[in-house]
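To illustrate the input format used throughout this study, we show a single complete record. The first block contains the structure-token representation of the backbone; no residue identities are included at this stage. The design step must infer an amino acid for every position from geometry alone.
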């Protein structure tokens, strides 16, 4: 029984994620279920995030405060960004991320938390030096965003004016990623979480497929 439990924890969830996102691709590419895919996207993001954080090894007040702080502050920053267009550039959110507060989906805060947590865990696997983890994770998050900006309009998440994110969007992403990863390192939040690392790269691959397909159909 212990071997089965260990397999489910270490292998089963990543495999489940792969199957889950493959089903998502089928829903996205099938005309009759495309709208359904958009509708259920926020719920699936909550579901996979809950699955990931259920495997966090050290839940305590410190961890809850830091991750909640990232969640709340990221939403506030996004609200300022959408309202003023001064932080990330001029952009608007679509319907693909669900319920909004002041035109910003609540789930966007969860996205920031997951990306900071997962990228931190990925870099931490290869180095224990704080500065390298903070900078490396921030760079990884920006690379993720470069791809995400291409995929987001395709699934009605958000869209920039002229469909072209300005350079300050990526600068803002990098600075916020530095701040959030600094907080994680400063308060020694343990991000060793194999499912989180897997989900990061599975999502990245998912967006690659969407973008390549979009480019192909435009030819």
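Output of the design step:
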């Amino acid at each position: 029984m212990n071997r089965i439990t260990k397999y489910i924890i270490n292998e089963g969830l990543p495999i489940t994620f792969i199957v889950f996102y493959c089903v998502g691709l089928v829903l996205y590419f099938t005309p009759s279920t495309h709208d359904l895919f958009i509708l259920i996207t926020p719920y699936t993001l909550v579901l996979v995030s809950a699955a990931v954080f259920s495997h966090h090894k050290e839940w305590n007040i410190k961890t809850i405060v830091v991750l909640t702080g990232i969640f709340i502050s990221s939403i506030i920053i996004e609200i300022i960004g959408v309202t003023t267009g001064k932080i990330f550039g001029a952009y608007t959110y679509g319907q693909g991320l669900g319920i909004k507060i002041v035109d910003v989906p609540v789930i966007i805060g969860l996205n920031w938390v997951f990306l900071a947590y997962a990228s931190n865990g990925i870099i931490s696997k290869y180095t224990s030096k704080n500065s390298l983890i903070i900078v490396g994770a921030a760079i990884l998050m920006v690379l993720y965003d470069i791809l995400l900006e291409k995929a987001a309009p395709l699934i009605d998440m958000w869209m920039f004016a002229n469909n072209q994110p300005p350079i300050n969007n990526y600068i803002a992403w990098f600075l916020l990623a530095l701040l959030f990863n600094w907080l994680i390192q400063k308060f020694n939040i343990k991000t060793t979480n194999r499912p989180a690392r897997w989900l990061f790269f599975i999502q990245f691959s998912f967006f690659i497929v969407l973008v390549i397909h979009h480019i192909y159909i435009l030819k």
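Structural context for interpreting the output: The chain has one domain: 2-218. The beta strands are 91-93, 100-101, 104-105, 158-160.
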